[in-house]
Amino acid sequence: MATVRLMTDAEADAIPAVKAVFDDIRETRGTNFINNIWRALARDPETLKRTWSQVKSVMAVPGALDPKTREMIYIAVSAANACSYCVHSHTAAARAKGMTDAEHGELLQIIGLASMTNALVTSLQVPVDPEFEATQ
Hey, what domains does the chain have and what are their CATH numbers? Predict the structure, then answer.
């Protein structure tokens, strides 16, 4: 259960700052659907606007990574951070962008492997090899 009441479309329409963000989300994504995260954040219009602006600037613009890859990275980070909502929403988004069952399966294998080896290296406090240090 959310810690705030999710904002309805009627409520959003009555607050110009929220309506503007909701309209931009719909236009950017080409859908009338507004995710619950945006409905929760709408209770604080400045946080809603700032968060949407950041998400849009990374996830909804052309770049070196294709949209499906971006969504798959978001799934991995969300799994590492134990964000169930984000795992679900970005898995749906990745599937909508063409992620196959085979790709999802490999992604889950990589997430599991990285989690295991991260825990081992952290618990052993293995020093970073000098060859891996960034050079200027």
Answer: 1-61 (1.20.1290.10), 63-124 (1.20.1290.10)
